[in-house]
Structure formats: structure tokens, C-alpha cells
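Quick question: what would this complex look like in 3D?
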Amino acid sequence: MGGWPVNFAATLRIALLALRINKLRSALTMLGIIIGVAAVIVMIAVGNGAQARVEDQIRSLGSNIIMVLSGSMTSGGARGGSGSQPTITEDDAYALNREVDEIQAAAPSLRGTGQVVAGNANWSTVFYGTSPEYLEVREWAVVEGRSFEQAEINGAGKVVLLGQTVVKNLFGDASPIDQVVRVRKVPLTVVGVLDRKGQNMMGQDQDDIILMPISTARKRVLGSAQQAKSRSVGSIMVKVKDGANMTEAEARMRELLRQRHRLQNGQDDDFYVRNLSEILQAQEASSKVMSLLLAAVASVSLLVGGIGIMNIMLVSVTERTREIGLRMAVGARSRDILTQFLVEAVTLSLIGGAIGILLGVGGATAIAELAGWRTELSGGSIVLAAGFAGAIGIFFGYYPAKKASRLLPIEALRYE
Amino acid sequence: MSEPLIRVEGLAKDYVMGSNVVPALRGVTLDIAAGEFVAVMGPSGSGKSTFMNLLGCLDHPSGGSYWFGGQEVSALSGDELAAVRNRKLGFVFQHFNLLARTSALDNVALPLLYGHVPAAERHPRAERRLLQIGLGERMDHHPSQLSGGQQQRVAIARALVNDPQLVLADEPTGALDSRTSVEIMALLQQLNREGITIVLVTHEHDVADFAGRIISFRDGQVIEDRPNAAKDAAAAL
């Protein structure tokens, strides 16, 4: 006498037959599981997608970035916008670098736009006059050639680094190293090519860029007399050391800049400090809220689905009392009956789970296509959802199955 | 004298209905030898069905002992009783109790499933029994596609498929017309002649007359136990 229930294939066949007899009822019973599992899949795909997107952006921007921007000028009660007055200087950047411990690197930058010409090709792009720290802050590598040298920074060297898009538009597949490009008619030699960065979070092409020493930009390219004399810059990009407290770093930067700008207590800052990572994290947080919402939908739906399975299994046990009695009369033991109904419940929930997985994968793809959100389907989430569905089948199927297995054969046979 | 197939001694069964204890069987003692064809008769409430359920290991007695093939089964657990039912007993019910939407063949093979007979052997064995009771042409039919008599034949094939030592038939003709009843009884009688022990419960004298021994119950006790001389006359019908 084997201790095991009757063979599994036969039990599964019985379960499938029972489910097929009540097709509509089985389908409706599965609905809760289908929705729940689909929601789990979509939730994880959206959550992972949002996180991956934020991580990518942080990676392309550089992590722990704080921007310092020129402040606004107030004249006669009218307040200009950010940058309306050049209040921050190259020297502020060097001071930040020197005096704030939390800062790993600070890069001043002057921004300009203009036509770039190389041979017959020309291209309109944006250029930045900056220091080599800029590459460190943005975690941007030079893939061909070299970066600037200190002498070039100090002496307004006629050198440039090109972004990938600029290289493609001016030189095609040829190497631009040691070639001369004219930026606003000023001839500069290409010494290096920047690595590919892709789009930033606004969708701008970050590779459409030219970098040059800040002194070169100031004295040779931007070239106005006023510019040449002043030390002002448009912005300073700061990278805070890994593990340092961003808020504290921000406070110390503000303190130092207020000191350097000789601002009295009570006077407004004449600069802006923007924590870019924070903005990204806010975006991530909003996608997390979406994920949580889906998680709530998923768990409620799975719970309701489970209760639905339990309900239908109880009905099924009652309806099939005589069948149970007969099976017992011809030799089914309690555990055979228990297994049969448990397998039926689990089959129901697993089929529902499988449909839910298909719907979830479809839904995640649709969201990616229609809403333009990035979603990432993972094998882990599918396994998790399937496991969940199975567990619900066992959990909610156990009570009805136990009830069936406890019937007395004679009473079950007599049941009308 | 050899060991009887069935021996019951002082077999009793009480039903508890609320605070009342209703005795359904009050101490029945009898033997049934292998190869007998016994009809159990009596009005409703006489205890004949209770007696049948106890013989069929479907219920536990409240008192007394029951030996089946020398084994005391009144002391067995639920799973052990299931095994006895599966290997040694076959049941034929008044309402056939076939599984709906399941072929005759699969219905007949059902006890083999619970007897852990390898899958490859189940259908051949079920086929043999269906051929034996003359339903070889309808093995793939579902119960709803069969007449009452044919359904009862399928049920008889199911009762025989595990080569039982005893077939218990509870009002097997109760749901059939008289002509079909006679056919079913003749089939049981033929099976008995081939050596199968049959215990039949009925309240119809015509049906009981097919048996070789008639035991009558009243108020939970045996009031008459006699050989049936009319057996051959019935067979001649």
C-alpha cells in the first residue's frame, strides 16, 4: 500500500476535466488572480524601469552633482531671472574646490553657441569653456586623444574636445585629432574626443558639445571686452565626494559663497544652488508611488481572487459530494480526495497566473509604447508572480479540499 | 468447514440524532460463505441498509465484530478501510453513481486508479470487464449517452474490475424498468455462477428471488434467514 496519493498525471486530468465542465465559472474565478498577477508584473516592470531610468540619468549626468548658478539682479523692484547678473566667478569655483572638504571637484563653465567649421563641413553647436575638473564632475571620459593641460588652461590654449555628435557631423568616420576647427571663426586644434553620453533627462543630445579651456572661451571665442576682463562664469558644477552628506555640502557651499560675495545677514543669496540628484530622486519617488499603487491593486486583487477560488471550491465540493462518496467507496483515501481538490484549486490559480503573466507582459509593453514610460520586465518578477499564484491556490484551496477529504463515505454517497 | 468469507457477531450500529440514540442494528450474527448469492430484505428502517454499509466498510459499527476473509475489519482505520473497499469489494448502487462526462471505460477503470494499478494496465483491464458484461461497443460513451440498463452494466463492470471477493448491490434495480431489472439480475446471477459472492439489498420479492439465500431484517434484527428454493424458477424467467 503506497503512502502517496494516486498518480499525479491522473489527478491533474481529473482537475482539468472538472474545470472544463464549468468553463465560465472557472474563467470568472480566475479573474482575480489574472488581474492580480498582471498588476504584479506591470508594477515590477514600471518600478524597475523608472529606477533604471533614474540610474541611467544619474550615470550620464554624474552622481552627487550640485549646480551653482548666477543669481538674479534686483533693480528698481524688478527682479531679473536667474543669470541676469553674472555674480559667480571662476575664483568661486577654485575656492569651493579648495575650502569645502565635501567637494571632490568643482568646474566653472562659460557657455556659448556658435557655428563650427571644419573644412567644408559646418555645424551649429554649444560650447563650454571650462576646466579639466568638468570631466571629473560629469564622469566623462576622453576616448580618443587627451584632455587639456594646465598650460592650456592658464594660457588660453587653442585646443578643443569634441562630443561624438559634433565629430560625426564635421568629420564623419575620420579621426578629428590634430585637425583644426573654427569656432566662431577662431581656429582651434582638436586634442580629444569625448565618450558617448546619450540623451539627458530633457531629451537633449549631450554629445552635441564642444569643450575648451575657460580662458580660451573667455579671451578668444566669446571675445567681448567686458568678458575678457571679468572672471564671471555662468555656472559652477560641483561633484560632492561619495558618501558625503549632500545637504551639509550644500550648506557649506552656500556659506562660503555668501562670505565671498560679502552678503549681509538677511540679504538674499545672489546665486542659486541646485541639487540635480535630488530632482532625479523626486522623479524616482513619483514612479515609486505609482509602483506602490499598483502593488496595492495587486495585493487586493490577489486576495479577492484567492477568496473567489475558496468560494468556488467550496461550492464545487458541495456539488460533487456524491462523486466524492463514490470515489471513497471505490477506494479513494482522504488524502487522495484532499490532493484532488487541492490540485484543482492550484491548477485554477496557476492557469489564472499564466494568463495574468501574459497580460502583464502585454500591459507593460503597452505602457512602454503608449505612455512612453520605460519598463523593464524581469524573469524574477514572472517567477515571483507564478509562485504567488500557486501559493494562493494552495492557501485558499486547502480548506475546501480538507473539507472534502473529511466527508464520511456513507454520508457523501447518500447526499442528495 | 472452511472459514466463511464474512462473519459478523453481535454487529450493532446506533445513530445519534440530537440527544436521542437511535439503534439501527441491534446485534446481528451471521456467516456468509464465499460463492453465495444473498438477498437482504426488509422494510425501510429495518436496518438492512445499515447492515449493507457495514459490510461494505463504508461505516464503522458501534458494537460487535466483523471479519472479512478472516481479517477483523471493524477495528481498521479510515485509510485501511479504503484499501479493503478498493481491493476486496465492489459496489453497485441504485442510482449507478457513474462520473458524468467520463467515458464508460474511464468509469470502469476508476477503482484501478485508486488501487495504484500502473496506467498502462488500467484500460486493458477495464476493457475486459466491459466486454464481459456485453458493452464492448460503447466503451467511449458517456453515461448520458447510455440507457439506464447500460449504465448499471457499466457500474457492474466497475464493481468487478478489481477482482473483488464480494460484490455489494444496493437496490441495483430500483431505478430500472422491470424488463431491464430482469436482465440486470440475470447478469448478477450469471456472475455468481462464475464464482463471485454477491450480497444484494432489495425490498422486492421478485428481485430477491434471484438469490440463493434470503435474509430478512426487521427493527435492526434478523427475523428470517432461509435458502431460496425459487432461485431456479427465477432464473428461468
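Answer marked as accepted. Chain B has a mean pLDDT of 90.
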